[in-house]
Request: fold
Amino acid sequence: MPKHQLDPNKWIDSYADYLFNYTITRVSNRDVADDLVQETFFSGLKSAKNFKGEASERTWLVSILKRKIIDHYRKINSNKGKAEVRINYSDGESEGDWLEERVADPFDKNAENKLENEELGLAIHNCLEKLPQKQAEIFKMKTIQNFDTEAICNEFDISASNLWVIIHRARTSLAGCLDETWFK
Amino acid sequence: MEAKATKLFIDCEEAKHICDKAQYNETSWWELFRLNIRLLYCNVTKAYSKRNQKLSTLVTDNKVDCMESKSKAELKVKFQEELKNHQ
Reply:
């Protein structure tokens, strides 16, 4: 009996945002990220029979997505030709400086910060997945996508005070979850 | 309700509600004023406000992203069609 089973009917609601966030940090283009997520779900359907149930559904979909992202970069690199790095020194005096230029700058924390931001982003999505679906959707629309209160109320057919109750519950649960999983 | 909106001292629940709205800049100056007064003496509100602010900073500073509602709706339609072919 496999530990996990696939339920494609729930894929979009449960994993689309997580996979999108994972992709956008790697490709930095919303259209490309949309396409890659779509291809991932379609490939998942095609290869569903290969799912052994040892990993969770999401882990399995992420592994497919990783291949899609690698293929995407391979494709654009083959279109551009091989990347070439050239350094031209304008004067002879600075020619010997290349070694110092290549020493890692200990104060440059950009890569580490980026990695931590990305992990935190995924941790937030993990916590969002634990919320009731409607609560998570409303929180995302309000906080991440910056929709107006009125637009969300119309979309979900709820009153403004109802929306704020939902937002309050979502924020409280999310803060609790992040305390447990990220700040612990 | 009218009396609730005009009184200077608010209870903890209302303070939390205003604090939530403040995260989205949807409070009036009067609401903010009353919240700030409560923050002067209520530790529960203070703790809630601090935690709430921290959550907002985490979500906005880390550029947490998600698929646009329109794209997701389109994807859902396409995926449902594909799903029918596989069933």
